[in-house]
Design goal:
The protein has four helices and eight strands; from the N terminus they run E-E-H-H-E-E-E-H-E-H-E-E. The protein is an alpha+beta fold. It has an eight-stranded mixed β-sheet, with helices on both faces.
Amino acid sequence: MTHIEAETIETARLVLEPLQIEHAEPMATALADPRLHAFIGGAPDTAPQLRSRYTRMLAGPADPAESWCNWVIRLRQDRQLTGTVQATVTPDADGLHAEIAWVIGTPWQRRGIATEATLALVDWLSRQPIRAVIAHIHPDHVASAAVAVAAGLTPTAEIHDGEIRWRRSVDPTS
């Protein structure tokens, strides 16, 4: 059984910092736009709700074979938190796979931040003992589909909860 832990990941413009409870208040502000929920439903979480959720996330999954890796995305230039990326790593018949997701606050969208952060995440995951990276994307979410394509994921014929399953195989020998 392999446990994967989030580590700091750096790019030219971004620092992906492992999630901490202290991120709740600035993330509540960064993700406060209700439009972020157009495809996933619900409403923005308040800082206390995020603190509660982050506490549960940091406690980790009940299944010891699963790893929860969560990061906040910080801009290097002004140190602003702009969004999150995550990877849930679980075993399957072929080994470990990572289901990833990303969200960028509305003020920072259309700047390539989601693509840069997701590329960095997938690159980091490719250095872990993971065989596949998977994302679930609403069929009408063009921006997320573009991020997935940039990260080397391709859509499959599988639909899960109304979302298309995207996949990228990872060569563990590279």
